[in-house]
Specification:
It is a single chain. Helix content is 55%, strand content 3%. It has 263 residues and is mainly alpha-helical. The protein has one domain: Cytochrome Bc1 Complex, Chain D, domain 2. The strands form two sheets. It has a two-stranded antiparallel ribbon.
């Protein structure tokens, strides 16, 4: 009897187990196709991304051409000039307080001649001598050309004659100095481009410059120019001041043009 009961219990357990396996098998079978379908989808998504990555051109950094060693741009060359000549009303204190000269619109050949005179020591001025010493011939040519064209065309045209008549006293001084024979009837069209345009130039600068032509045996102040030296020495300082005041009052082509960053 006991053996019969044991046998029936074993058969019942086996039956239940078989049913469980039978139910699990279809579920596993259904899960397998789902996984199989998911795998191609993932494969399809990854493939275009890989293709796009492969097709995208690689970015190549292009280096800017290097400037020659020691080369200076025009901006760098004129930078040392802007701090004085590019500021309206700027004053120097050597050898006395006066406005620095206007050089925008000045003749390139005159600017070059002046810089070379400072460089050679024919014009004595510690600051300008130091600047000129650091300039090459090409630097001087470039700076001179820049300032000749700087502001060209701005302002009203200058007439052929002086824009105002001098007083009787100044007229006599002008005749004695024969200024128009070199600087032109309007003082803005010199007969030689190495001579400066002076119409409208700052009066206090011209007064200091004229006195410099009279200076002798001064290691820091003076201008070596036989023609201008002979002319300036004919006049007292008061007369030179009167001449400077008149010429400064005339319409001219010289101007101060501040750089954009200073405007």
């Amino acid at each position: 009897m006991n053996k019969l009961l044991t046998t029936l219990l074993v058969l019942a357990v086996a039956s239940v187990t078989s049913v469980g396996y039978a139910q699990a098998a279809p579920a596993a079978a259904q899960a397998a196709p789902a996984a199989a379908q998911a795998a191609p989808a993932a494969s399809q998504t990854a493939a275009p991304a890989a293709q796009a990555s492969a097709a995208a051109p690689a970015k190549v950094a292009v280096a800017a051409p290097a400037a020659p060693a020691g080369a200076k741009t025009l901006d760098a060359k004129v930078a040392m000039c802007i701090g004085c000549h590019g500021i309206k009303g700027y004053q120097a204190s050597f050898p006395e307080v006066h406005k620095v000269p206007m050089i925008s619109g000045q003749s390139a050949k005159y600017i070059a001649a002046a810089l070379n005179a400072y460089k050679a020591g024919d014009r004595k001025h510690p600051t300008m001598r130091g600047i000129a010493d650091g300039l090459s011939e090409q630097d001087i040519a470039d700076i001179s050309a820049y300032y000749e064209s700087h502001g060209k065309g701005e302002g009203k045209p200058v007439g052929d004659k002086a824009s105002k008549e001098p007083s009787a006293q100044v007229a006599a001084l002008l005749q004695k100095a024969a200024c128009v024979s070199c600087h032109g009837a309007n003082f803005s069209k010199p007969i030689d481009p190495t001579y400066p345009k002076i119409a409208g130039q700052h009066a206090d600068y011209m007064f200091v410059a004229l006195k410099a032509y009279k200076a002798e045996n001064n290691p820091a102040v003076g201008r070596s120019n036989g023609v201008m030296g002979a002319i300036a020495k004919q006049f007292s300082n008061a007369e030179l001041k009167a001449l400077s005041g008149y010429v400064s009052s005339l319409d001219g082509e010289l101007k101060v043009i501040p750089e954009r960053k200073f405007r």
